[in-house]
Design brief:
- With 91 residues, the protein is an all-alpha fold.
- Helices cover 70% and strands 0% of the residues.
- The chain has three helices and no strands.
- The longest helix is centred in the first third of the chain and has 37 residues, at 2-38.
- It is elongated and about 65 Å long.
Length: 91
């Protein structure tokens, strides 16, 4: 059934593209949130600054380190940027 095959191909492509766009957006939002946290601003009311508390041991976590050290620099390489643009332009 060619109609079902075509539908499955378009669905697969849509899910893949959706995943790539969401994971890229997640990295940028994570970056914005870390800036907010370092600036001692509140979560919901980000325009309100709070007093800095005593610095405790800073533990960013595994996921933050993974994105900061591997995924972020990988996305910022020139050939990866060009590849992402070409892939997005194709669809």
């Amino acid at each position: 059934m060619p109609a079902i095959k075509t539908f499955a191909e378009y669905s697969t492509l849509a899910i893949l593209l959706n995943f790539l766009l969401q994971i890229t957006c997640f990295v940028s939002l994570l970056s914005i949130d870390s800036r907010r946290l370092e600036d001692s601003r509140m979560d919901v009311f980000c325009c309100v600054k709070v007093k800095k508390q005593v610095e405790s041991v800073k533990d960013d976590g595994i996921l933050y380190g993974l994105f900061k050290n591997y995924y972020g620099p990988f996305l910022l390489k020139p050939y990866v940027r060009i590849g992402v643009i070409l892939v997005i332009e194709k669809f």
